[in-house]
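Checklist before submission:
- one chain only
- standard amino acids only
- sequence pasted in full

Submission:
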Amino acid sequence: MKLSFVKPRCELQPYLESIWIFESQNGLPSADSSVAAPNGSPKLLFLCENSLISFSNGETQISPPQKLYFVGNKRHTTLLRSSSRQTSFIGMEFSPHGAFSVFGIPMSETFDRPWEADALFGNWAPETQEVLNSLERADQKVAFIQEQLILLVRKNARDSRLVEFCVSALKSSDGRVSITELERKTGYSRRYLDLLFHERVGLPPKVLAGIYRFQKFYRRWANGRSFEAMKEDLYDYYYDQAHFTNEFRKMTGYSPRQYSLEVSNEFGRRFTLR
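Returned file contents:
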């Protein structure tokens, strides 16, 4: 299993957080849980080789190769599977509000599930897919997708300074800025901020804050730290241990202890440590 990262072009850096290429001769590791936990980033995926099977929120979806897919912001974890053969796919992770500025469609329409890009983006998706399937190398495909996204930015970019400010405040504090504090700092009501996030992020600010709090501890797990060792500053982020356990279970489907002892997720670890 090989995971490599490409730095987004400067024109896309306000909107894209990362670009990655996944390659494996034998598909996703059969002994690995391959859990993709919520991280606040919508994703554009191009499956080059092999299908992916995803399980999330009680639904199963099979995604054939040589197509573009868009995954909006999620509250639930996704479990990924594939057959044991040559597998490769390219991923573009947007900032929470970045996909709206690129594609110009409400992120509320993309919430919590993978979509075939044709269903969301009209002719852009099949035209882009056709060229991608004619290119041989992954680096050529990445370069072409970036060129197409830059063209969309020039066409669809909106003024997102308010939501950028709020997202930055939530992320830099690992979700500890309250919505009341965002109201005070921005001068806008909770209702207006909820409506703005509904359109441009797909999640309310409170839910995104919860994801960032969860990610603070999830990154520590990815670095090999046990959840038992994290108790020292747990109360800076959660009311008590039961609150943390409930939130963690919402994000992963497991309690922190179960996750540490029962879940093998090298796939998720590598993505978290990028």
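Reviewer check: The longest helix spans residues 138-156.
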